[in-house]
Design brief:
9-stranded mixed β-sheet; 301 residues; globular; alpha/beta; binds iron/sulfur cluster; TIM Barrel; 11 helices
């Protein structure tokens, strides 16, 4: 399947999208935080990012979902900083401490092309939300130089529908987390009380754009929606309500129900999440998913 962004590059529409996305940086409303800072002048908001693109790493990744990894890996590019900032973040050095280095859009494009040369099946932008304008500009450069693999938008799910609309026809695979349905947890651990309402609107928009996940004859994802949900101790996430939403969206949704929660970063300050998840807790969530008719993306253990 031809990646979505080629058509917009050929028509020139991608230029318009880049301009519109960049314009949002002057009074930043790229994400639901709507900080209103002028990032083009070096000001920073919640995500602590100016307009300068910052990347922590770029490499083939073999720990992602099988449908992304295939035989040669997912071409993963970690962006520094984050618009969500969870207290239990597993990559806190990158997302909270801002580990990484500044790169130009042309340099980011070259990283993408190198990952394609290494045989990666996709370019997987991790935590891209706060650098969306720069990423789209880099996609244009890379496409002109021969990029032909799908783009994965691997985000925390705290996204603005307005920004997502400007990504239509550019992103092939959306991979949002759905972290919480409980407002108290979203506020306590991510300072985002409105997380679930915002996330539901964002995920509906993603699904409208790309539909359910489609794989090629090798079983490698080429287009669609792939949701991740991390099971948390003591059900602080409110997993059942999340699964109900996903099942209503489409019972064919690919949803990776994840078991790997570890109390990282500041999780030790919160007794209820300062432990790993019990197998019984995980099984309960999986059983609920099955009862609701979901079947793709997770295993019964
Ligand atoms: S992208 Fe960053 S500065 Fe812009 S609204 Fe979101 S958190 Fe604030």
């Amino acid at each position: 399947m031809r990646p979505a962004y080629l058509e917009l590059c050929e028509s020139g529409e991608i230029e318009t999208r880049i301009k519109e996305l960049y314009a949002m940086l002057s009074d930043c409303e790229l994400c639901p935080r709507r900080c209103g800072v002028n990032r083009l002048k070096g000001e920073v908001g919640f995500c602590r990012s100016s307009a300068k693109l910052k990347v922590a790493s770029a490499h083939p990744h073999f720990g992602e979902e099988d449908v992304l990894v295939g035989t040669h890996g997912s071409g993963t590019i970690f962006l520094s900083n984050c618009n969500l900032g969870c207290v239990f973040c597993q990559n806190y050095d990158i997302s909270h401490l801002g580990v990484g280095y500044e790169v130009s859009e042309a340099e980011l494009a070259e990283m993408m092309l190198e990952l394609q040369r290494l045989g990666c099946h996709n370019i997987n932008f991790v935590t891209p939300t706060h650098f969306t304008p720069q990423i789209v500009a880099a996609i244009k450069i890379a496409a002109e130089r021969g990029l032909r693999v799908p783009i994965v938008y691997n985000c925390g799910g705290y996204e603005s529908v307005q920004t997502l609309r400007l990504l239509e026809g550019i992103i092939d695979i959306y991979m949002p987390d759905i972290k919480y349905s409980r407002a108290e947890s979203a506020e306590k651990y991510s300072k985002a009380r409105d997380y679930f309402e915002v996330c539901k609107s964002a995920v509906r928009e993603m699904h409208r754009q790309v539909g359910d996940l489609v794989t090629d004859e090798r079983g490698i994802a080429v287009r669609g929606l792939l949701i991740r949900h991390l099971v948390m101790p003591n059900d602080v996430a409110g997993s059942e309500e999340i699964l109900r939403f996903v099942a209503e969206l489409s019972k064919n949704t690919y949803i990776n129900i994840m078991f790997q929660y570890r109390p990282m970063f500041k999780a030790h300050e919160y007794e209820e999440i300062n432990r790993t998840v019990k197998i019984s807790e995980y099984r309960k969530v999986v059983e609920t998913a099955v009862k609701l008719g979901l079947w793709r993306g997770f295993e019964r253990i």
